[in-house]
Amino acid sequence: MFVFIKIINLCKRRAHSLAPRFSAYLTRHKELVKFFIAGSTAGIADLLFLFILHGLLKMSIVPATSIAFLLAFIVSFNLQKFWAFDNHDQKYFGHQLFTYLAVALVNLYLNGHAMYIMVNHFKVWYILAQIIVALVLGAVSFIIYKFIIFRKRQSVETKNSEIKNYEING
After folding, report:
1. In terms of Cα–Cα distance, which of 11, 3, 76, 72 is closest to 38?
2. DSSP letter at 122?
3. Quick check: 33 and 26 in contact, CB under 8 A?
4. CA dihedral 119, 123, 128, 131 (to 10 degrees)
5. What are the CA-CA distances from residue 76 to residues 42, 88, 90, 101, 122 (Å)?
6. Which of 44, 46, 64 is nearest to 56 (CA)?
């Protein structure tokens, strides 16, 4: 993870020196940019793990694909939780992991179903259909991750302190 962050920071500095206005725009929308980078990294990890397991180690395709998916899922969850959404709260880790997996499985189903409909019924070119489906599912996932799974939660101490301040000052 440390190497990943070092690479990202190097890219940020380079982008800022080449295109400061564009860099400022990306900085304003950094959570969305981080979400996209984390998702892309997980996708690349999936392909890399599949290549290593099936291509190099000659593992059968079905177990290789399944293991690659699980490893990429771990990469994705950790990057989204700790880096993209800056959520280091361990109290809800298990719940977040389970909910994140549920969203991933629902997205897998919806991706296949939407692709089938777009390609077979509406005759959309399969690459264009996948881009459209990925953008829609990505947008919905971003909202679910940001506002449900990795939302910022106030601690009980913070809430009690705010209530006391309101009662004293209110």
Report:
1. 76
2. S
3. yes
4. -40
5. 5, 15, 17, 10, 32
6. 64
Residue with tokens 């953008």: 135
Question: Mean pLDDT over all residues of the chain?
Answer: 90
Rounded Cα–Cα distance for residues 62 and 54 (Å): 9
Helices and strands: H and E segment counts in the chain: 7, 0
Q: How far is CA 106 from CA 82, 103, 114, 168, in A?
A: 22, 5, 12, 48
Q: Can you give the pTM of this predicted structure? A: 0.79
Model pLDDT for residues 10-66, shown as the tens digit of each residue: 888 887 888 888 888 888 999 999 999 999 999 999 999 999 999 999 999 999 999
Cβ-based neighbours of 30, under 8 Å, separated by 6 or more:
none
Start-to-end CA span in the chain (Å) = 46
Q: Which helix (H) or strand (E) holds 35?
A: helix 30-50
Cβ atoms 50, 64 nearer than 8 A: yes
Backbone angles phi, psi at 19, to 5 degrees: -145, 80
* Residue 54: partners with Cβ closer than 8 Å, 6 or more residues away: 60, 61, 64, 65
